[in-house]
Design a protein that fits this description.
The complex is a heterodimer of chains A (295) and B (236). With 295 residues, chain A is mainly α. Chain A is built from eleven helices and four strands; from the N terminus they run ββααααββααααααα. The longest helix of chain B is centred in the last third of the chain and has 16 residues. Chain B is globular and about 45 Å long. Classes of the chains: A mainly alpha (295), B alpha/beta (236).
Chain lengths: 295, 236
């Protein structure tokens, strides 16, 4: 019972849990990307930058204004969401009718600008952010120690993902959203203010990234580059899950986090690339992604 | 006719899709409680007329008076709230929504809509299929649903585009009965039709559309005298 395939159970469980933590971030970020892509038809390359900004707003709030973690968890996503709305109104809204490439280029450019700005201000070394008192320490589960903060990341991100899924799939507002995604013109002709919904969707999608950023702040260093490190894997997750699928992006995010964690145990050399191997396989066998629909 | 009895008046309406100029000065009016048909060949501009009223085309000029208000510059989502229901030619059933979600989707625009019970009484099939995904419904069911979902909202002006197209005769007959019931309930209806035999018994007035403009207006009472006109433009 203490070893599985020659690997100590403790190490296995530890990596499994780390995998779930990473998977939680993948899930939240790819969920935002999927929602945004579905509604706006835009591949939001600035997503990593919004994630980074969420972490930085939390850090700056604490550093300059003494705003604690719990307030930041609420205020940073709101701030990031408002910035997203300003960007949607001023720039993105002119691109919806054009090829995907334009949205991708604009958001990629935005990501570089935002990242460069923070790099210029704070350098690349990264700032520490302490875990709030309530979440320091660990649970002793008998067979392993579970750091409270990691448990919190998993639980809170799953809650946010579930809430988002429920809102989109089970409520009236969600039905508007799905209808507007499928046929925006007709939906607008029924009297639904689609441009407003598009704007709010972008704000919400990037706010999710901001929320993930705040969650990440105490677990990682707050660094201008944290977003661009993560976003490449997240895009692979989105490709594997299928663009535009809500549940697909959540499950794929978590699943790939776990697979990555387990790879670290059994074949560490491949842990950084396993996601991309899976992406290649999925693209060969199911080009629309595991949960995507062929168009 | 005085403006009070007029629900819709379109005057000198031009509409474009990008560079192409589709409507060249459409003129027609629809009074409250009337059923008016736009007849014409494919590509004459009838579908575009409905879309232009709803703000779904590109640039528009001219005048669209809806319920006493000039709406030619309004965005589509505000126009619906003046009591306009739209049933598009392609039916526009959302594949990602269930039949019931499709039915409940369009927001309420007035309190005068039919109750869900009334709608299911009119279209019993839809009650049986309410949990089905929109994409799984048959053509006839999709057409019923497309019609049913605008009756719920309280829209009093119905813009119906080719509702009889591609359906079995028995369903077309059923749709004819439904339109007659709706007229009795006081709905104002604009029917875009190719099927003259479907439209003729329902319409109070007909407009013949050709090259993006109205070329003839025929009252129900004039139908016999103007046979030749119909023959010329429609081949009926």
């Amino acid at each position: 019972m203490s070893e599985v395939f020659g690997v100590p159970v403790q190490a296995l469980l530890g990596q499994l849990m780390l995998g779930l933590v990473n998977g939680s971030f993948y899930a939240m970020l790819s969920l935002g990307l999927a929602v945004i892509f579905g509604m706006l038809n835009i591949i939001n390359f600035a997503h990593g930058a919004f994630y980074m900004m969420g972490a930085f707003i939390a850090w700056m709030g604490l550093e300059y204004l003494g705003i604690g973690y719990w307030w930041s968890l609420f205020l940073a996503p709101v701030g990031v969401g408002l910035l997203g709305i300003a960007i949607e109104r001023s720039m993105l809204q002119w691109l919806y009718k054009l090829d995907h490439l334009y949205g991708l280029l604009l958001t990629f450019g935005l990501a570089l600008v935002l990242e460069g700005l923070f790099r210029d201000l704070y350098g690349v070394s990264g700032q520490p952010y302490t875990i709030p008192d309530e979440l320091t320490g660990a649970f002793n589960l008998g067979f392993m120690f579970l750091p409270k903060y990691r448990a919190w990341i998993i639980v809170s991100s799953l809650t946010v993902c579930f809430f988002t899924w429920f809102m989109i799939e089970k409520t009236r507002l969600g039905a508007y959203l799905r209808a507007a995604t499928e046929n925006p013109r007709l939906t607008q002709a029924f009297g639904i203010n689609v441009p407003l919904m598009v704007m709010l969707t972008y704000g919400f999608g990037v706010a999710l990234a901001g929320f993930a950023g705040v969650l990440a702040a105490p677990a990682l260093q707050v660094s201008p580059l944290m977003g661009s490190h993560l976003i490449i894997v997240v895009f692979a997750v989105v490709v594997i899950g299928g663009m535009g699928s809500i549940l697909g992006s959540i499950l794929t995010g978590l699943g790939l986090g776990v697979i990555e964690g387990l790879t670290k145990v059994f074949y560490p050399e491949a842990s950084a690339t396993v996601v991309f191997f899976i992406m290649v396989l999925v693209l060969l066998l199911r080009p629309a992604g595991l949960f995507g629909r062929e168009k | 006719m005085s403006p009070a009895t007029e629900y819709l008046r379109v005057t000198g309406l031009h509409a474009f899709y990008g560079e192409s100029h589709i409507l060249h000065g459409m003129d027609f009016r629809v009074n409250r409680g009337e059923c008016v048909t736009l007849l014409g060949r494919n590509g004459a501009g009838r579908t575009t007329t409905l879309k232009a009223i709803l703000g779904l085309t590109g640039k528009r000029t001219g005048s669209i008076m809806l319920n006493g208000r000039e709406v030619v510059a309004w965005p589509p989502h505000r126009i619906a709230h003046l009591g306009v229901g739209y049933c598009p030619e392609e039916r526009g059933i959302y594949a990602s929504l269930s039949a019931e979600e499709n039915l409940m989707l369009p927001p309420q625009v007035s309190s005068e809509g039919l109750a869900l019970g009334e709608i299911y009484a009119m279209f019993p099939n839809l009650r049986d299929r309410r949990k089905s995904q929109g994409s799984r419904l048959s053509g006839g069911e999709q057409q019923m649903l497309a019609l049913a979902r605008i009756l719920r909202t309280g829209a009093r002006l119905l813009l119906l585009d080719e509702i009889s197209e591609g359906l079995a005769p028995v369903i077309v007959q059923k749709l004819g009965e439904v339109i007659r019931q709706l007229k009795d309930k006081g709905f104002t209806i604009v029917l875009v039709e190719q099927n003259f035999r479907f439209a003729a018994p329902l319409a109070d007035r007909m407009y013949i559309v050709e090259h993006g403009a109205v070329v003839a207006e025929i009252e129900r009472s004039e139908l016999e005298q103007k046979r030749e006109l119909l023959q010329e433009f429609l081949g009926v």
